[in-house]
Each structure stands twice: as C-alpha cells, then as structure tokens.
C-alpha cells in the first residue's frame, strides 16, 4: 500500500530545537504524499522556518510546554481538519518515513484504533534505552493485561475515533503511556508493526527522574480506574 495514494492521514511531529533534522524529515514525509504538521514547541532555533520552507503546516507554542502538550495541539488540529487519523513521529529523524505505509496498511487491514511501531526486534537502540524500555513495557503490559512489546515508541498511527474519545492531559513524554492505556481501557484494538530506528547523534530530552515520576502517575491513575 502506498501512503501517497491516501491523503486522509496527517503526520504530526512535535519538535523542540530540531533545526538539524526537521527539514530532511519533512521532505521525506512529503514524498509519501501526506500532509505534515510540525508543532514547534517553543524552539529557540530555526525549527519553525525550516519546517515551513519544506512545506509543513507549523503551529508554534510561545514557550516549551513538553512533548505531550505538543502532540495534543497536533491532535486538536487533525480533528478540526477532519483527518481520518494521525501518524506521530519524533523530530530527531530516528523514524523512517518509508515505513509509514506499513502502519497505515496494518491499521486499515486489522481495523485497529492504534498502531505502534515496535522498535524492539529490529532497532539499534542503545543498550540502556533498551533496558529501560523493556522495564516500562513490562509494567504497562502487566497493568493493561496484554502483551505490549514497545510501550514508549513515538512512531504511531492513531485513528480519529481514538483521538476524539480519549481524554488526554499529559504534557510530557508520559503521553505515550497515557494514550496506550486509555485506548486499552476503551477496548480499542492495538497492533504492533516492526520498524527500524536510527540513533546516530540523537540527543534525548528525557529527564529520568521527572519523566519517570510522570510515568508512574499515569500508571497509578489507570490502576485506580480499574479498582
């Protein structure tokens, strides 16, 4: 299936100080024939003008509000524009836009509300990230009572009905977990597609203590809803 034959999806890219990677990423996504929205989350570099020059719609936050808030801005835009769904990607270039058609095909063939790119089987993820991701995915799997091989992947297809009916309030990286658990609670079908990733010279904005605490708040809130 070619993504260029399907214009019903919008690629949403939250970006913070991503001038070095955003241009090539937007160009690659545009070659798939898809609309691109870059949510410039208070960057103090040239992220916004570069993305705009490459053909992306750009929405800018005046200050850095976090990945979760940037994604929520993108979801609100996609719902107003009446897209059938969004594909989310990180702005650092770790996700390959050539794999977008595989997510779309899996979502439509399996009637899934959420399709997640599974990096664990094929990626060159640094060892410490792999350990942390396995731990967090094990926790999410336990509370969701289903196998979740990669709970933290930011490469996802999310159907519009999931976006419209899943209240989100996360501002940071914990939005990946919040969305996954909320979709599970509402019994949306979730499927996983193996994807490749690259981590060359990519700087993580994750702050382990703060973002770890936020992750556990999301998990505990989910458990509380099921008591």
Q: How many strands, which pairing sense, and closed or not: the largest β-sheet?
A: 7 strands, mixed
List the strand order in the largest sheet: 3-2-1-4-6-5-7
- The CATH architecture comes to Alpha-Beta Complex
Relative helix content: 40-55%
Report the span from N to C terminus: 43 Å
Number of domains: 1
Tell the overall outline.
globular
Low-confidence stretches: 1-7
Structural class: alpha/beta
Describe this protein's structure.
This protein has 227 residues and is α/β, with parallel strands linked by helices. The chain has a single domain, classed as Alpha-Beta Complex (Spore Coat Polysaccharide Biosynthesis Protein SpsA, Chain A). The chain is built from 8 helices and 7 strands. It has a 7-stranded mixed sheet, with helices on both faces. α1 runs parallel beside α2 and α7 packs parallel to α8. The protein is globular. It starts with 8 loop residues before the first strand and ends with a helix.
What brief labels describe this structure?
single chain, 227 residues, alpha/beta, Spore Coat Polysaccharide Biosynthesis Protein SpsA, Chain A, 8 helices, 42% helix, disordered N terminus
